[in-house]
Amino acid sequence: MSETIEGGCNCGAVRYAITGPALAVAACHCTRCRRQSGSAFSVNLVVKPEAMTVAGDLAVFVDTETSSGQSVLREFCGVCGSPIRSRLNANPHIIAVKAGTADAPDGFAPSIHVWTQSKLAWVEIPAGLPQFAQNAG
Known about the structure:
- With about 140 residues, this protein is mainly beta.
- The protein has one domain: Metal Binding Protein, Guanine Nucleotide Exchange Factor, Chain A.
- The strands form two sheets. Strands 6-7-8-9-4-3-10 form a seven-stranded mixed beta sheet. It has a three-stranded antiparallel beta sheet with strand order 1-2-5, with no helix packed on it.
- The chain starts with a strand and ends in a 23-residue tail after the last strand.
- A hairpin with a 6-residue loop joins strand 8 and strand 9.
- The chain contains one helix and ten strands.
């Protein structure tokens, strides 16, 4: 992975930079991430909040439908609606940045799968990759 990861939304109103490599690339299969991504799962770059800088205004949806009871702040471009990142109040030491928003996303294949208890039946996880029924850990 490159030293700096850059990306942004569809319209260009939001741009970001992440200094250093991602801590992990995680595919989340929870219902909420599926709905936010509009896909079978959401691929996220797990990074420390201090590693990411954002230019432009992020709108936020406070998602209170969580297993921990603590909200997830789902941040997106208020102009075009592109989802950018999620901040988990249950774990404020990491953020989940939508890998598909990176300028060069090809190098971000998931290395871990979480919330597989709600995985769609037709999704096949490659053999050997760590997977967790709920959160990792």
